[in-house]
Design a protein that fits this description.
- The complex is a heterodimer of chains A (271) and B (236).
- Chain A contains seven helices and ten strands.
- Chain A has 271 residues and is of the alpha/beta class.
- Chain A has a single domain, classed as TIM Barrel.
- In chain A, strand 6, helix 5 and strand 7 form a beta-alpha-beta unit.
- Chain B is 50% helix and 7% strand.
- With 236 residues, chain B is of the alpha+beta class.
- In chain B, helix 5 packs antiparallel against helix 9.
- Chain B has a four-stranded mixed β-sheet.
- Classes of the chains: A alpha/beta (271), B alpha+beta (236).
- Chains A and B meet through helix 2 and helix 3 of A and helix 1 and helix 4 of B.
């Protein structure tokens, strides 16, 4: 198994630190979150690209907006991304637009069936593998045993890859008072091709955990990710998600930790 | 894959569930109605009573945490753009509240807003939806409106538009090159307020100067409306 390490690209203000990390051999790729801001050109960095998006509501009964899907496809074709990362989410109630951050769907049979149809059409349209990812979870599933079972089922039905966002997974387990390893067995390990790692924070209520890309991954997340790197048979990529405005020393330090966890699974590509 | 008729039926049921769940997440009024009489709410959304078990228990801390987070994100973006407008509304008798907006059709309908600067189309931000909703609900473009409120809302929205113009943007925002202007009081030519694209605010009283504003390509904020955006194709 050869693993690659990468970072998420959201904004041109990250370019300098990302280029530096690439030159130091700390990263092999950038995971670009499409659609990207007007006038930005992450492809110009000369670093391999993994295509990702948070802008397709793959679980929506309204289907996926073709104009957005087209932009993502064009970018993935241009960069020859090996797969495209997609979120299992709603964005609103209309065929287009977004009411804010991605909305977790109801994890029910009918939504799973709709999601499977949407993802199959998207994959055919892209003509490229899709890797599915869950968001951070707060609410107990009302259909499937859990959101992890929903993800595992849809991935099996449509034969997709899976991005296991370790932070989102642990947020869900903490928010729903579940054991740390809850739900992993619901996903075929041979489908998990990528890990996402980011920070999380405890809310002011001291009860619920939230995604926090401005923070570093906590020690539990790093430890779990390290073990998954050893255990998952088909893992190809580990992506660190870090806010463009968070301290650069945090960025560098966490990449060093991830590289340490990956160790000999990765062939560092220094340029 | 189901045949087309079966798929349409499935999507229709899923669409109704999606609409109800999202309304419950964002709108306190829908939550209250649900707690009082869930059967009627299900009926309103075209769902049979047996669909009730698809909807989570909205009284749990978990549901309320997610609902709070969803609403807080929208509220944060609006408060950031309209701090003085919101402050003014908060002390106005019978003033419109954030909940009025977040339960309105304007919030849920992407066509109630402007195209996003990134080029993905309308409905990907809530700031312009909020402005157009406020303008409509309080008749801010009509004679006799609360001109103090109009002034605050227009200045804050104009500043947001210029911010959007001043960063890499969808060509739609070229409309705001040079700046935007509006009559201090609807129906009266002067004074006219101009915010230029360097954020300098002018109060203009000279009729000749005011007449020249559209001629030099500046946009009257009272004429800015959500564009008649075509329905976009979906992968169905």
């Amino acid at each position: 198994m050869v693993l690659r390490v990468g970072v998420r690209w959201d904004d041109p203000i990250q370019n300098e630190r990302i280029q530096k990390a690439h030159q130091q051999g700390l990263i092999d790729y950038i995971e670009v979150n499409y659609p990207i801001p007007f006038g930005s050109n992450p492809h110009g960095l000369g670093i391999p690209v993994l295509a990702h998006t948070s802008s397709n509501p793959t679980c929506s009964a309204e289907g996926v907006n073709l104009n957005i899907a087209r932009r993502i496809k064009e970018a993935a074709d241009e960069t020859n991304s090996p797969w495209i990362g997609e979120h299992l989410s709603w964005l609103g109630t209309a065929p287009t637009g977004s009411l804010g951050y991605q909305i977790n769907p109801l994890f029910t049979d009918e939504i799973a069936a709709v999601t499977a149809m949407n993802v199959a059409r998207l994959r055919d349209y892209y003509n490229r593998p899709i890797a599915l990812e869950l968001g951070p979870i707060y609410i107990q599933s009302t259909g499937f045993k859990s959101e992890m079972h929903f993800l595992g089922s849809v991935a099996n039905d449509v034969d997709t890859k899976v991005i296991l966002d370790v932070t989102h997974w642990q947020i869900g387990n903490r928010n729903l008072d579940r054991p740390t390893d809850y739900g992993l067995d619901a996903i075929d390990p041979s489908r998990i091709i990528e890990l996402h790692i980011a920070g999380m924070r405890l809310g002011s209520d001291q009860r619920f955990w939230h995604d926090a890309h401005d923070l570093l991954p906590d020690t539990d997340v790093l430890a779990i990710a390290s073990q998954l790197i050893q255990d998952l048979p088909a893992l190809e990529a580990v992506t660190f998600e870090h806010s463009p405005v968070a301290p650069e020393e945090d960025f560098d330090g966490c990449l060093a930790d991830i590289n340490n966890a990956v160790r000999d699974h990765r062939t560092a590509i220094a340029v | 894959m189901p045949d087309k008729a079966a798929e349409n039926a499935l999507r229709d049921r899923a669409r109704r569930l999606q609409a109800l769940h999202i309304r419950l997440l964002f709108c306190p009024g829908t939550q209250e109605n649900w707690l009082t009489d869930s059967a009627t709410v299900l009926d309103t959304f075209g769902l049979p009573p047996e669909m009730q078990d698809r909807i989570p228990d909205i009284t749990t801390d978990q549901f309320q945490a997610e609902s709070h987070g969803r609403r807080a994100l929208v509220k944060g973006s609006i408060s950031k753009t309209f701090p003085e407008t919101q402050q003014y509304l908060a002390i106005s008798p019978g003033g419109l509240t954030f909940d009025n907006f977040i339960c309105s059709e304007n919030f849920f309908n992407p066509k109630s807003g402007l195209p996003h600067t990134s080029g993905v189309g309308p409905g990907y931000e809530n700031t312009s939806k909020y402005f157009f909703w406020l303008k409509q609900e309080l008749a801010l473009a009509s004679a006799g409106c609360d001109t103090d409120l109009r002034h605050k809302a227009y200045i804050e929205f104009a500043t947001w538009l210029i911010n959007e113009y001043n960063r890499p943007h969808d060509p739609y925002y070229d409309l705001f090159e040079g700046g935007v202007y509006w009559a201090r009081s609807p129906g009266e030519d002067k004074p006219t307020i101009l915010l230029n694209d360097d954020y300098v605010l002018y109060t203009l009283n000279d009729p000749n100067t005011i007449r020249q504003l559209p001629q030099i390509g500046l946009t009257n904020l009272d004429e800015v409306e959500p564009p008649d955006w075509p329905d976009e194709p979906t992968l169905l």
